[in-house]
């Protein structure tokens, strides 16, 4: 003898069938009906229960990460939450660096922490293999390391200093 169920609808998904009242979430036991659900390990979960039980939680906002996401220092982040600590620009898919466990876009990092060129005063990032000259607590971009008088490049050459200026040997002999 077959059991009688008081239901008018049959729910089907990928070859499986349930009575409407039997098609429930494995966690909260509420009928799923036509709401979104996830099948995991042979059990059905309504979307909110699935997210609570299985989804990674973003370190920043503490909400579930349902698609994509970023892993930084072995912690999950929404890509929208993984931003530069200074300017709030998204860092996912961008080059970035960190200091004191805070992530920075390259522009902010350079502006905040990089040494400044003694000639042009812009940051010296040292990124991408760019080279620089360092002498007595001052730094220069390779392209900026030039004689103050005649502008000849002093990279790989001898030079003299006169107060804050650098000079080639020819221009420096007058001092």
Automatic annotation (TrEMBL):
**GO MF assignments:** transcription coregulator activity; zinc ion binding
InterPro entries on file: Znf_LIM (IPR001781)
Q: Return the Gene3D superfamilies for the record.
A: Cysteine Rich Protein (2.10.110.10)
Start and end residues of each LIM zinc-binding domain? 1-55, 56-115
Q: Which keywords does this chain's UniProt record carry? A: LIM domain, Metal-binding, Nucleus, Repeat, Zinc, Zinc-finger
The answer to keyword Nucleus applying to this record is: yes
Name a single GO cellular component: nucleus
Location(s) in or outside the cell: Nucleus
Q: Does the keyword Lipoprotein apply?
A: no
Residues annotated as transmembrane: none
What's the name of the protein?
Answer: LIM zinc-binding domain-containing protein
- Name the gene behind this protein: LOC115383970
């Amino acid at each position: 003898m077959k059991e009688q169920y008081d239901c008018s609808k049959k729910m089907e998904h990928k070859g499986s069938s349930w009575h409407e009242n039997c098609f429930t979430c494995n966690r909260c036991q509420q009928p799923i009906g036509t709401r979104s659900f996830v099948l995991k390990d042979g059990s059905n979960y309504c979307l909110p229960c699935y997210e609570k039980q299985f989804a990674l939680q973003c370190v920043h906002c503490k909400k579930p990460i349902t698609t994509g996401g970023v892993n930084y220092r072995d912690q999950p982040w929404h890509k929208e939450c993984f931003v530069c600590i200074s300017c709030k620009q998204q860092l996912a898919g961008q080059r970035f660096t960190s200091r004191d466990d805070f992530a920075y876009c390259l522009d902010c990092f350079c502006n905040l922490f990089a040494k400044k060129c003694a000639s042009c005063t812009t940051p010296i990032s040292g990124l991408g293999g760019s080279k620089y000259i360092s002498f007595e607590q001052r730094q220069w971009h390779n392209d900026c390391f030039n004689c103050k008088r005649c502008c000849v490049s002093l990279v790989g050459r001898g030079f003299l200093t006169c107060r804050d200026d650098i000079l080639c040997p020819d221009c420096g002999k007058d001092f």
